[in-house]
């Protein structure tokens, strides 16, 4: 099947964007995997699919597949690229744009400086909704909020803060992200038995109360140059741990994201994320239909 696509990136987290506003392409998980493949396909961390509004009061639906072909709930950098795409393609003239994602809705605005600001919704801390199983573990309460000790191979234990931004995140404090064990601990945390839906693993270095460095080993992908929901989760965790102010610049390997979250007694304020969204190129490709 021959399809048109747009290649985009936000802080180096890269996407193949597909337009299904005039009809479904009907791709299989294997075909999404092929599109994301950097050797045999186009190459991307995620595939974003734009669909028409599913309900009054919404402008679009967008669907996200990880490079492993699995559908996921949320993608922060993808959300910014999504709004750049529907605006540049003149699929809408609304600003902000209201979009349905898998388990909720988000609002996205193009800023005058060319960046995009996304209302990412409120973080979720309820373990059942993350989902996370902390039963039998004793949390570390040395800081203002708890961290849960995950046993890893080699008898090491990783103390993680647990938060959902619509998708699950485990956030680990490290002294220096350049030296963090992302390649060895990332896959173990991603598939840890305590996270039944798997998890994105964030390695957070606090530089000051307004500046952090972050690397994320993403569920279904591996380490990416940036993760938007990971940046939101890391800043929310840092604020709840008492280490960060309400507005923080997050330095990733692919660029800077600004995250703002005003903590309240109910911890239910929305997280605002601002960052870049860029079109790289457009193309057509023959997607094999005999993939296993
Ligand atoms: N790159 C994304 C997150 C994409 C989904 C994630 N890998 C998951 O499985 O939850 C972002 O920018 O948020």
From TrEMBL:
Task: Give the residues annotated as active site.
Answer: 75, 227
Query: Which keywords does UniProt give here?
Result: Amino-acid biosynthesis, Cytoplasm, Isomerase, Lysine biosynthesis
* Marked site (Could be important to modulate the pK values of the two catalytic cysteine residues) residue numbers: 169, 218
**Cellular localization per UniProt:** Cytoplasm
Task: Give the family per the record.
Answer: Belongs to the diaminopimelate epimerase family.
**HAMAP family per the UniProt record, alphabetical:** DAP_epimerase (MF_00197)
> Under which name does UniProt file this protein?
Diaminopimelate epimerase
**Underlying gene:** dapF
């Amino acid at each position: 099947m021959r399809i048109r696509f747009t290649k985009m990136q936000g802080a180096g987290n890269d996407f193949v964007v597909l337009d299904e506003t005039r009809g479904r392409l009907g791709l299989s998980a294997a075909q999404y995997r092929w599109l994301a493949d950097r050797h045999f396909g186009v190459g991307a961390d995620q595939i974003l699919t734009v669909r028409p509004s599913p309900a009054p009061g919404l402008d679009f639906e967008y669907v996200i597949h990880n490079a492993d072909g699995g559908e996921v709930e949320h993608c922060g950098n993808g959300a910014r690229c999504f709004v750049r795409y529907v605006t540049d393609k003149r699929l809408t003239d609304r600003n902000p744009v209201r979009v349905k994602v898998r388990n909720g809705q988000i609002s996205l605005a193009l800023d005058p400086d060319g960046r995009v600001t996304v209302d990412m919704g409120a973080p979720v801390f309820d373990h059942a909704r993350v989902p996370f199983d902390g039963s039998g573990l004793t949390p570390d309460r040395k800081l203002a909020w708890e961290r849960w000790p995950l046993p890893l191979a080699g008898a090491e234990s990783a103390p993680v803060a647990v938060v959902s931004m619509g998708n699950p995140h485990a956030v680990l404090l490290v002294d220096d992200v350049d030296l963090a064990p992302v390649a060895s601990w990332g896959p173990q945390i991603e598939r840890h038995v305590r996270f039944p839906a798997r998890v994105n693993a964030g390695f957070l270095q606090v530089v000051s109360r307004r500046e952090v460095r972050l690397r994320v080993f993403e569920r279904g992908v591996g380490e990416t140059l940036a993760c938007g929901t990971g940046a939101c989760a890391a800043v929310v965790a840092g604020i709840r741990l008492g280490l960060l102010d309400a507005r923080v610049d997050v330095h990733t390997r692919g660029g800077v994201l600004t995250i703002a979250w005003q903590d309240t007694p109910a911890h239910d304020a929305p997280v605002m994320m601002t960052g870049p969204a860029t079109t790289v190129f457009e193309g057509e490709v023959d997607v094999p239909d005999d993939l296993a």
